[in-house]
Amino acid sequence: MPGRFANLEFDHRQRHAEQRELESRSQQCTREEAAASLLAQANDAYHWGRFESALRLYTRALKEERTLIPAWVGQVQILVQLDECHEARVWSDKGLELFRNNGELLAAKAQACARLNDAKSASACSDAALAAPGASPWRWIARGEMLLARRQKFAAECFQKAVAEPAADWFDHVVIARIHMHYMRVTNALHYLRQALELEPTHGYIWFEMGNCQRGLGLLPAAAQSYQRCLELRADYVEAERALESLSDGSSLFARLRLIFGRRRRP
């Protein structure tokens, strides 16, 4: 009898341990699923230029799964877009503490350093990113920006290598375009946006950025058409609606000023 009760107690403990293990696996699976969902939402927000939302979602994804490297990289990229480059550098360092010599994070840090005018660190991080195992469009994009920031040669070649990478997609062209816009090279930005449209003609955000470039070049009718096309593809994209309204207001103001000053010139 004692042996039978002992066996029953052992079986009970074993079943209890197995149940806890199953619950732990289930919770882990749930957290991984939640992190993956948040990462997908963050990427979508990033692809629509909604940087504040993207940053919150990347941060939430990391709370669910700290080892999610794309979320670390995305967080740094978004901070740069929000002109929080010091913060971007801090978070890239935190990511590199966990994933030492990770090429994507090194490239992200290189971009942050380039925006901070720390040419030495930007160059070192970019060199390390390209030397790290693996390859990606992002590493060449960051390299291109590092050279562009320093007005050095071969920046264009780096961007071309980026879009030639097997993993390159339409959004890589948009990222390169935004970099050119940051450095006031709007014509170059338009070139990459046109390439993006060839790959993904029905994504409204490309048309929105196209409108921004055309507006910067003073091509107001073309900008209005691009904003309108964006709204045709996504009617709820309020950013394009506001841009179109401000464009219309600005055009009306310009016309009134031209009329006023034209009258004053008459004898």
Provide key terms for this protein.
mainly alpha, 13 helices, Serine Threonine Protein Phosphatase 5, Tetratricopeptide repeat, disordered C terminus, globular, 267 residues, 82% helix, single chain
Secondary-structure map:
Elements: H1 2-47, H2 51-64, H3 69-81, H4 85-98, H5 103-115, H6 119-131, H7 137-149, H8 155-164, H9 170-182, H10 186-199, H11 204-216, H12 220-233, H13 238-265
Helix pairs in contact: 1-2, 1-3, 2-3, 3-4, 3-5, 4-5, 5-6, 5-7, 6-7, 7-8, 7-9, 9-10, 10-11, 11-12, 12-13
In short:
It contains 13 helices and no strands. The protein has 267 residues and is mainly α.
The helix count comes to 13
**Mind telling me the C-alpha Rg?**
25 Å
Let me know the average pLDDT.
Answer: 88
Name the CATH superfamily classification of the domain at 43-154. Tetratricopeptide repeat domain
> What is the helix content?
over 70%
Report the major sheet: none
Sketch the topology as an H/E string, one letter per element. HHHHHHHHHHHHH
Instruction: Using the 3D structure, state the CATH architecture of the domain at 43-154.
Output: Alpha Horseshoe
CATH domain class of the domain at 43-154:
Mainly Alpha
Structural class: mainly alpha
- Fill in the CATH topology of the domain at 43-154: Serine Threonine Protein Phosphatase 5, Tetratricopeptide repeat
Oligomer: single chain
What is the β-strand count? Answer: 0
* Residues in β-strands, percent: under 5%
Task: Note the gap between the termini.
Answer: 121 Å
Shape: globular
Low-confidence stretches: 252-267
